[in-house]
Design a protein that fits this description.
The protein is built from 16 helices and 21 strands. The strands form six sheets. It has a six-stranded mixed β-sheet, with helices on one face. A five-stranded mixed β-sheet has the order 13-15-11-17-16. Strands 5-4-6-21 form a four-stranded antiparallel β-sheet. The chain is an alpha/beta fold and 497 residues long.
Length: 497
C-alpha cells in the first residue's frame, strides 16, 4: 500500500519526538489497538454499569503509565481522576475529557455493532470496509475508525496516554504537574459536576485547564478555542380541549393549541432570525479588535452554506463567528397530535415546543428564561408549571405550562492570557503555522464549575476531525487525527512556558 499524501505531510510537518515514520507508525498503531479495546466497552451515560466498566479499564491504563488514580464519588455517577507524582516547583495543568458517550440506535449505523470499531476508506460510493490487517504493512492516515465515542471523547483520551508513552520513551522531564479529570455524565449535562468540583477543590487545584473535546476547525488546521457557550432549556405547552376532539364537530369552536403555539413562537423572532424579546441581546459589546479576531478564523461561508443546504443564513451576526457571540433561541422539537401515516382528523389537546437557549458569558441563563416567560405573559398567556386543572381551564382563557431546565454557564478566557499565548506559540512552533484561534465555540462543554471554583483560565484544544458525526450514527475518527493528537499532547507537555 502506498503512503497517503496526508501521511507524508504529517511526517514532514510533525517534527515532534521523531521524524522517523516507523516510530510514528508504532505510536499510532498502538493507539488504534487501545482505542478498539476501549470503544468495545459500552459507555452509555444512562447506564451506570457501563460507566463502572470504563472506570475499571481507565484505572488499569493510567496506572500502567505511572499515574496515581482514584474514583471520585459524586451525587450521580463517579468521576475519574489521575495525576503524575507532584513537584511543588512546577505549574500544574489539569486536563478535562469525558468517558461517557451518547446512546446508540444500532439500526441506524452502517455496521452491526457501534461498539465494535470498523476500519473504512473513502470510496466513490461512500465508505468501504477495510481489514485491520492492512495496517500492519502501512498506515493510511486518511482512513477512518467508525464506532461510538471514537471521536467524542475516547479518542483524545487514547491520544493522551500514547503521548505520555512517547514522552517517557524519549526521557522527557515534563515541566508541569499533570492532572486529569474524566467526566462520566458529560453527555447528559454533567449535573453532579459543580458540587463535585467544590468537594474535590483541593485535589483539582491547578494553574490552568485544558479541555480536549470537540473537533478542530473545519479547515483541518491546529485549533485553540477560548470559550464555549452555555445552555439552558424551556419546555412550553399550550392547551386546547381537555382531550383530543373530532375536528369536524369542534373545529372552528374549540381553540387549537397548535395554532396558539405557532402564533406564540412567531412573536419571538423576526424573519431574519433575530430574537424580538426585549433585552435578550443586552450587554454584548464587540469592539474592532474582537471583530478582527473573529474575522481571522478561516471559515468558508460558501462551503458552510452548501453543507447545510441553505441559501441565506440568519442575520443575528454579520458572519458565522460573529453570530456565535450572541445567545441563541432555538426550537429543538415540536409536537402536537399525530403526523404521517398516523395522522387523524382531530383537534389536539396540547402542543409542545422544546426550546434550548445557548448562552454567552454576558448572558445569564436564569435571566434569559425570565425574559422569555415575561414575553409569553405579555402575549396574554397564563403561565403554570403544572398541567392545568379543570378550575384553571374554566378561569383562564389561554394557558401555557412551562418547565425549565438547569443552567450550564458559558465561559470565555481572555485571548491575551499568558497560558493561552504559550499554547499558541507551542502549536505554531510544532506545526509551522499559527493555530486557528476561536473566541467562543457554539457548543457547550460543562467547564464553568472549574472556572468558578478553581479560579483558573481554560482553553479547548480539540483533537478530532470536524466531520466526525459525533452524537450521530457512524461516528468516526480519522487516523491522521490520532497522529495529530499524540503530537499535540507531546508538544504541550514537553514545552516549558
Amino acid at each position: 500500500m502506498k503512503k497517503s499524501l496526508t501521511l507524508l505531510l504529517l511526517i514532514s510537518l510533525y517534527s515532534g519526538y521523531s521524524q522517523d515514520s516507523i516510530l510514528i507508525k508504532s505510536k499510532v498503531a498502538n493507539a488504534i489497538t487501545e482505542l478498539r479495546e476501549f470503544v468495545a466497552i459500552p459507555n452509555d451515560a444512562l447506564n451506570a454499569d457501563d460507566i463502572d466498566s470504563n472506570l475499571f479499564w481507565l484505572r488499569k491504563k493510567f496506572t500502567e503509565r505511572g499515574f496515581n488514580s482514584t474514583i471520585l464519588e459524586t451525587e450521580g455517577l463517579p468521576l475519574f481522576f489521575a495525576a503524575l507524582p507532584m513537584d511543588d516547583n512546577k505549574p500544574t495543568i489539569l486536563f478535562y475529557m469525558h468517558l461517557d458517550g451518547q446512546s446508540v440506535d444500532a439500526k441506524k449505523w452502517d455496521q452491526p455493532d457501534p461498539y465494535k470499531v470498523v476500519l473504512k476508506s473513502k470510496s466513490d460510493d461512500g465508505w468501504k470496509k477495510e481489514s485491520f490487517s492492512e495496517l500492519e504493512d502501512d498506515i493510511n492516515y486518511d482512513w477512518r475508525l467508525f464506532g461510538r465515542s471514537t471521536s467524542d471523547d475516547k479518542g483524545p483520551i487514547i491520544m493522551f496516554l500514547n503521548a505520555i508513552d512517547a514522552l517517557k520513551k524519549d526521557g522527557i522531564d515534563i515541566p508541569y504537574n499533570v492532572k486529569v479529570i474524566l467526566d462520566s455524565e458529560e453527555e447528559k449535562s454533567s449535573a453532579p459536576l459543580p458540587q463535585a468540583v467544590r468537594t474535590y477543590k483541593d485535589l483539582l487545584k491547578a494553574d490552568f485547564l485544558v479541555i480536549n473535546d470537540g473537533p478542530v476547525h473545519v479547515s483541518g488546521k491546529p485549533t485553540i478555542v477560548y470559550g464555549c457557550r452555555g445552555i439552558t432549556t424551556l419546555s412550553i405547552t399550550t392547551h386546547g380541549p381537555i382531550k383530543p376532539q373530532h375536528s369536524g364537530h369542534y373545529g372552528n369552536y374549540a381553540p387549537n393549541p397548535g395554532f396558539q403555539l405557532a402564533q406564540l413562537l412567531a412573536t419571538m423572532k423576526d424573519a431574519d432570525g433575530k430574537v424580538l424579546i426585549k433585552g435578550y441581546y443586552d450587554g454584548i459589546p464587540l469592539d474592532d479588535a474582537t471583530l478582527e479576531i473573529l474575522k481571522s478564523v478561516p471559515d468558508n461561508i460558501e462551503e458552510i452554506n452548501k453543507n447545510l443546504a441553505i441559501l441565506t443564513p440568519e442575520k443575528v451576526g454579520g458572519f458565522y463567528q460573529e453570530a456565535l457571540q450572541y445567545p441563541s433561541l432555538n426550537i429543538r422539537g415540536l409536537g402536537s397530535g399525530w403526523i404521517g401515516d398516523q395522522a387523524r382528523t382531530i383537534l389536539p389537546a396540547t402542543a409542545t415546543a422544546e426550546l434550548d437557549l445557548r448562552l454567552v458569558p454576558e448572558s445569564d441563563g436564569t435571566r434569559l428564561k425570565k425574559l422569555v416567560k415575561e414575553h409569553i405573559k405579555n402575549q396574554g398567556f397564563h403561565i403554570m408549571d403544572t398541567a392545568p386543572t379543570m378550575d384553571d381551564r374554566l378561569k383562564y382563557d389561554r394557558i401555557v405550562t412551562i418547565k425549565e431546565g438547569t443552567v450550564t454557564d458559558a465561559f470565555r478566557t481572555d485571548l491575551n492570557n499568558p497560558f493561552g499565548n504559550s499554547i499558541v506559540n507551542t502549536m505554531e512552533t510544532k506545526f509551522g503555522e499559527k493555530p486557528v484561534q476561536i473566541r467562543i465555540m457554539g457548543g457547550t462543554v460543562p467547564i464553568s464549575p472549574f472556572i468558578n471554583e478553581l479560579k483558573i483560565p481554560a482553553f479547548i484544544v480539540p483533537m478530532v476531525n470536524a466531520d466526525n458525526n459525533q452524537h450521530s450514527p457512524n461516528e468516526n475518527l480519522k487516523i491522521g487525527q490520532i497522529a495529530y493528537g499524540i503530537e499535540t499532547f507531546y508538544a504541550l507537555l514537553s514545552t516549558k512556558m
